[in-house]
Write a structure and sequence with these properties.
The protein is mainly alpha-helical and 164 residues long. It has helices spanning 13-20, 41-58, 79-96, 117-134, 155-163. The longest helix has 18 residues, at 41-58. It is elongated, with a radius of gyration of 58 Å. The chain starts with 12 loop residues before the first helix and ends with a helix. Keywords: Cytoplasm, Cytoskeleton. Residues 94-164 are annotated as: Disordered. One of its GO terms (cellular component) is cytosol.
């Protein structure tokens, strides 16, 4: 199916006359610069290395791996530790930035009451009693014989009472 002449697009008469009268000699000379430079051998080698690495990763068999446990060396603090650190930091800031000019002058009175002699004597007696008990020498005791003052009745006496 060929298109007929009347179906072809029409060109403006002015443009047609300009195109017919155009002289290529009036054009300036220009050098052509190729913008798509071929890669160097170094670029090709780098790309091959990267491609081989990617293929190695894609083809890696995960069945060869061993199971391991991960141990966290530097765990993050929990919310209680963070809260405690904030409180500590606020206290330090309060102490560091305290304004001494707002303080009132005071007189310091040292009170160091010593115990009265009676309390000292009671404490000495208590310590001597404890020391005497702890350091008691059992070798100073004399041997004694125990005498029963209320002897138990014999079997015969019990039988006689049952009969009576």
């Amino acid at each position: 199916m060929s298109t007929s002449l009347k179906d072809l697009p029409k060109v403006n008469v002015d443009l047609k006359s300009e195109l017919e009268g155009f002289k290529t000699g009036s054009m300036k000379k220009a050098e052509t610069q190729e913008k798509n430079v071929l890669p160097t051998a170094e670029d090709v080698a780098t790309e091959k290395t990267q491609k081989a690495l990617l293929q190695g990763v894609e083809a890696f068999d995960t069945g060869k791996l061993k199971h391991t446990e991960t141990q966290e060396k530097n765990p993050l603090p929990d919310k209680d530790v963070v809260k405690q650190e904030k409180v500590h930091q606020n206290l330090l800031e309060g102490v560091e930035h305290f304004d001494k000019a707002t303080m009132k002058p005071t007189q310091t009175q040292e009170k160091n009451p010593l115990p009265d002699p009676e309390a000292i004597e009671q404490e000495k007696e208590k310590q001597n009693l404890i020391a005497g008990i702890e350091n008691f020498d059992t070798k100073k005791l004399k041997h004694t014989e125990t005498q029963e003052k209320n002897p138990l009745p014999t079997k015969e006496a019990i039988d006689e009472e049952k009969k009576a």
